[in-house]
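Dear U.,

For the methods section draft, I wanted the exact inputs and outputs in one place so we can describe them consistently. I've listed the two proteins in the order they'll appear in the manuscript figures. Please don't edit the token lines directly; just add comments below if something needs changing.

First protein:
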Amino acid sequence: MTEEAHHVTARELADLRKVCKMVLNLDEYDPGFKDLRALAQKALNYSTISKNEKLAKARAVAFATNAAEAIKRKQVILAQIDAIFEDAGVPLTYEQLARALDARGVKPFRASRWSAPSVRFVIRGRK
């Protein structure tokens, strides 16, 4: 199986840099974005100081794809949390939300199960 090369234009690279900068502005205290923010900084560094322009473009494309997937994933999780609140009809603790997310099969960002602190950070990062 061969990989198809993707030529990145200067405009696309500029757009990718904008995405990286937007990711850097995400909530720095949200543990779900800690690694993403580090990747954004690396991508910005690669795209500005790398001697190998093709490599810099490939890294920027990969980062932008990962960033977009992470943002979509967080939106899906927040939608699930909203649905859990609607189904319950009463206020729930973070621990109850964590158990409900596990029961629905929603996977957390890095752990195998949801915890109360991870639910709290996702909700507080909603803004």
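Second protein (the one for the lower panel):
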Amino acid sequence: MAFWIVLLKSLHIVAVIAWMAGLLGLYRLYVQHRAEGEAVAMARFRALERWAWLAVAVPGAWGTVLTGAAIIALLPCGYLPQGWLTLKLILVAGLLAVHLLAGRTRKAFLEPPFPASEAVFRALTVVPAVVTVLAVLLVEFQPPWFAWPGC
């Protein structure tokens, strides 16, 4: 069992890295896309955005959620009662919301009028990075703020 937990945790870390690379890159592409006016460049941005979404962000998100769920399923009493995990799962839900917003934004960029301003996309570029740092700190320090009864 220990081998599978270590393997799942390793795959979870790789999936999180891929997911964050996709989201950070996607929002950065949105900043540049929003500032661009030339049709050829905009077509190039749409292609890059599609690749960042379909090849990096979506598989990373699925990998993160599935490996995280598998770790919890294999050791439910080891993780579920811990309060830090609850907070981490709330952060993950927030990242999923940012992820879904990125997907909807990609579709909105297909036809004018384009969504939001450059400043909004610059701000959204920071959100996944900050949330990921907070989640990593929670996992590493596992603060004993509270614990759920059970197990």
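Candidate sentences for the figure legend, describing the second protein: The chain has a mean pLDDT of 91. Residues 2-141 form one domain.

Thanks,
Y.
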